[in-house]
Amino acid sequence: MARWSYRHQVTETANARKIAFATFVRRALDEARATRAWSGTEVSRRTGVSRQTINRWVRGDWASDPEAERVVAFCEGLGLSPATAFAALGWERTSAPRSTPTPPPMDPDVEALLRRLVDPDVSDAEKFHIRETIRYLAYRPTLPVDVRKRGKQAG
């Protein structure tokens, strides 16, 4: 991962932020060209950010801030820290980062199926059968509400 000693004092003006971010993007592109021989098209393919967007960033030609997800994708595709890009954009956070909500607990039967899918001792035929069954259940029509209620009453 490339690390630059890029510590540009970003003022609060939008123009200074654009210049700082454009400099960051330009350096990232130069680094990708020099060390990996990547073209602009290859950078776009590897990062998932369109060439048009990258070119707008380099020119500082944007009315509203770049989307954080695109900035992260650009950085991760090039092996850079998104924090450096965020700092160039003036997005340094003084508050503690928000914690991501914990996902709801997974059904034990689903966990068992997932374990079987990654178990090297389970045959490919069995894994195929599990995937096909899951695919069928995932895309079948939803049962009417009254049928679901009857199932709960029977059990």
Q: What can you tell me about this protein's structure?
A:
InterPro entries: Cro/C1-type_HTH, Lambda_DNA-bd_dom_sf. With 155 residues, the chain is mainly alpha-helical. It has two domains: 11-89, 434 Repressor (Amino-terminal Domain) (Orthogonal Bundle), CATH 1.10.260; 108-139. The protein has eight helices and no strands. Helix 1 (14-36) crosses helix 3, helix 1 (14-36) runs antiparallel to helix 5 (82-88) and helix 2 crosses helix 4 (68-78). The protein is elongated and about 65 Å long.
Please describe the topology of this protein:
Layout: H1 14-36, H2 40-47, H3 51-59, H4 68-78, H5 82-88, H6 108-118, H7 124-139, H8 145-154
Helix pairs in contact: 1-3, 1-5, 2-4
Keywords: DNA-binding
GO molecular function: DNA binding
Protein name: DNA-binding transcriptional regulator, XRE-family HTH domain
Low-confidence stretches: 1-11
The rounded distance between the terminal residues' Cα atoms is 56 Å
Instruction: Give the proportion of residues in helices.
Output: 55-70%
**What's the overall geometry?**
elongated
Mean pLDDT comes to: 82
Number of distinct beta strands: 0
How many H/I helical runs?
8
What structural class is derived from the secondary structure elements?
mainly alpha
Supply the CATH class of the largest domain: Mainly Alpha
One letter per element, helices H and strands E, the order comes to: HHHHHHHH
Radius of gyration: 24 Å
Beta-strand proportion: under 5%
The name CATH uses for the topology of the largest domain is 434 Repressor (Amino-terminal Domain)
Largest sheet: none
CATH level-two architecture of the largest domain: Orthogonal Bundle
CATH superfamily of the largest domain: lambda repressor-like DNA-binding domains
Structurally, the number of domains stands at 2
